[in-house]
Design brief:
α1 packs across α2, α1 crosses α3 and α2 packs across α4. The chain is of the alpha/beta class. The protein has seven helices and 14 strands. It has a single domain, classed as Vaccinia Virus protein VP39 (Rossmann fold), CATH 3.40.50.150. The chain is 25% helix and 28% strand. It is globular, with a radius of gyration of 19 Å. A ten-stranded mixed β-sheet has the order 7-6-5-8-9-10-11-12-14-13.
């Protein structure tokens, strides 16, 4: 666990920058050693430009205190792969509110830092299944997470991997399509999912691994799914070739409508109407709230 002074420094920075007051969440950031998940110094603090591009500039440092600020740290700068800003992810975790004893599915675990935060939040009675397609990152994460007995890290394509049922899912990469198994796997009545739905950055080079989009919180009732936007994001794009049609639809939705209007996610077959914000092949982000008889949670 981290030096208490530095850990408190990070927790204070997150609280100041985000307004988060949830004590268990701030405590998790205060006690998990961030450097354990970043490799040896010197570290590269990422500098982001106003257009959202990243990686052109870094501040190299061996000062441990630099890691305990609300900054992104480059893991592999050539790939634009970062350990992202704690404040950004803290907002997602605050929305998810993982609780003691819950089962968590972490997609795109990377080097395992936010997996460790999740493991702290659900405690020894809970569990975390962490998945990433990058074998070297998963191997690194396994070593860094060795003290966390409630974590299992797996090399797999999260889109086809079956984690079973889970209470909480955090997606730490940009996707243009939500896998059916992620929606079906959410525990009825209380399952929660945070996912960045993203498209390529405008004008990006063909070598860029970054994408831009909207982060949604999806909550499963017994027979319906609530959904709401919780922020925007620029993030590492999930591996694979996303369907061009889905990306085109998402771009059009982002250009045409206000994502703040979204209230639910529908999985039933229905014709496109004015309530549809993003009508994909297998689901629809809708401006309409779920029917009252489907809302019991």
């Amino acid at each position: 666990m981290s030096n208490s002074h530095l850990g408190d420094q990070l927790a204070s920075a997150i609280a100041r920058d985000t307004g988060i007051t949830r004590a268990n969440l701030l405590h998790a950031f205060a006690v998990v050693e961030r450097e354990r998940f970043l490799g040896p110094p010197p570290w590269l603090i990422a500098k982001f430009s106003c257009d959202g591009s990243a990686g052109a500039e870094y501040e190299q440092t061996a000062a441990l205190a630099s890691l305990y600020s609300n900054v992104s740290v480059a893991l592999e700068p050539d790939r634009q792969l970062y350990n992202g800003q704690p404040g950004t992810v803290a907002v997602w975790l605050d929305a998810l509110n993982p609780r003691a004893g819950e089962r968590v599915f972490h997609v795109g675990c990377g080097s395992g830092y936010y997996t460790a935060i999740l493991a702290m939040l659900v405690g020894p009675a809970g569990s975390v299944i962490a998945v990433d397609v990058d074998e070297s990152l998963v191997n690194f994460a396994r070593k860094a997470l060795a003290d966390f007995r409630n974590v299992s890290a797996v090399v797999a394509d999260a889109g086809t991997f079956d984690p079973g049922m889970f209470d909480v899912a955090l997606v730490s990469a940009g996707f243009s399509v939500i896998a059916d198994s992620w929606l079906s796997g959410l525990s009825p009545g209380h399952g929660r999912l945070v996912i960045p739905l993203t498209v390529p950055l405008p004008g990006r080079s063909s070598r860029s691994n970054l994408s831009k989009g909207i982060v949604f919180l999806i909550e499963r009732a017994e027979q319906a799914y609530f959904a709401r936007m919780i922020g925007g994001v620029i993030i590492f794009t999930a591996a694979g070739n996303p369907p061009a049609a889905a990306q085109k639809q998402l771009i059009e939705s982002l250009q045409r409508g206000n994502p703040h209007e979204v209230q639910s996610l529908r999985r039933d077959a229905h014709a496109v109407d004015t309530s549809c914000w993003f009508h994909a092949e297998r689901y629809c982000f809708s401006r309409a709230a779920p029917p009252v008889h489907m809302r019991a949670r």
